[in-house]
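Subject: Sanity check before I submit

Could someone independently write out the structure tokens for this chain? I want to compare against mine line by line before I put it in a report. The sequence has 127 residues.
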Amino acid sequence: MTNSEHQDIVGSAVFKLHRATALVDRIADRYLLEHHGIGYSGFLVLLTLGTSGPQAQRQIADALDVSRASITQRLGRLIGDDLVIVRPDPRDARANTISLSPKGNRAAGERVAGSRNPSGRSRCGRG
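---
Independent answer below. Compare away.
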């Protein structure tokens, strides 16, 4: 790749949008870890379950536009922190239904409230 081609890519609107999105994600992750002890990716799972109720892992993955493997990784920490409950799906033996635990329900509410400043605007870069 020539220097000119590299500059064209770096200067493109698509690349700048990608960089801005990555920066917002890092800021949100840093804020949530520092103030609430959870990363942005885990927070998104809690937020999804808190707003939509119990869901299959596949549904959570679809809602967040990530792979099921990614959700499995995210759930590992949330399960370890007792924030979610995993139960076999009664309609599909190959699937699990994920719900917030009582602790997860409290945490989701606190973390959503804590991610907003008094004006109601998001502190962590989204919403």
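---
OP: Matches mine. For the report I'm noting this point. The two ends are 38 Å apart (CA to CA).
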